[in-house]
Write a structure and sequence with these properties.
Blueprint lengths: L9 H12 L6 E5 L6 H13 L13 H7 L6 E4 L8 H10 L10 E5 L7 H12 L5 E7 L7 H5 L2 E4 L5 H10 L4 H10 L4 H9 L2 H11 L8 H11 L5 H21 L11 H9 L3 H19 L4 H17 L1
Parallel strand pairs: 1-4, 1-5, 2-3, 3-4
The chain binds zinc ion (ZN).
Amino acid sequence: MGFAGILGQERAVSLLKRAIGIDRLPHALLFTGPKGVGRFLTAITVAKALNCLDRVNGDCCDRCPACSKIAKKIHPDVHLVIPEGATVKIDQIRTLTREAPLTPYEGRGKVFILDQAETMTEQAQNALLKTLEEPPRATFLILIAPEASALLPPIVSRCSQIRFAPLPEGVIATRLREQGCEEGEATLLASLAGGSLGRAQELRKSPLSEVWDLVGQVFALPPGRTVPVLELTEQILRQKETVPLFLEALLAWCRDLMVSKVTGRQDLLVYRNREAALRGQSKDLALRQLLAMYRTVKQTLDGLGRYANPRLSLEVMFLMLRDLQAA
Ligand SMILES: [Zn+2]
């Protein structure tokens, strides 16, 4: 497949292909962008294109022995550096700096891919600086991070940054359908995935039907009673890992309530197959109530990303949502 197998990153891919084609690929690259949009796949493809025995126009063949070894992660010149535990440690970087100057064993270029580079400890980042500054002639380093600000400025300034954009929903939905997802589910997952194919695939594995059931319960909380709020929180916390998914799903539902209220159009909904329920709920609520509900869920979701207490956050959110519906 080569670079053609990378979805929705035409700009990044054409830059890289052109540079490889004329042997001008920068030796220190920083791939930034959200998780699951193709940064790692692109890094592997760059390693293949650099070492491919049958390279054409800066792209790899994906068939030759070099390409196959890289795909199987057994090529002696392509090294993957990933966090050991929570961080990439200084010893891992020391190994890298020892190996970087050596001539390639069998390929044209030595490639080090540092996935989740933002997890490098400060010491590790400092240990990497010298290699980044004067990379050996046949050595290429590809750092992968969500954003440049996640790394120390001297690291960033020594790298050529290539930005990876979130994927359009249509691209994600099409790929999910190719992988056997049915139409309605593909559209829904794509809209919840925030531009990340990886996230869409993760969501696909999670118990979506349970999550929808929980979303429904939020809108059935009886006014004035606190026990159901505590019970619902308890039920959600039983599966901690689905809390963000639940909140994303709830946020999409609140968004759809507004869309349904304002436009009445089914084609603009995330939950297209639940149009009737959305119409019914939004009918009784004013737009300002719906907007306040949306904001409440959004704030909770953002707060959880910053290590807010999940139990407290959920309880407060449910109480606010319940009161907003009654207001
Ligand atoms: Zn090849």
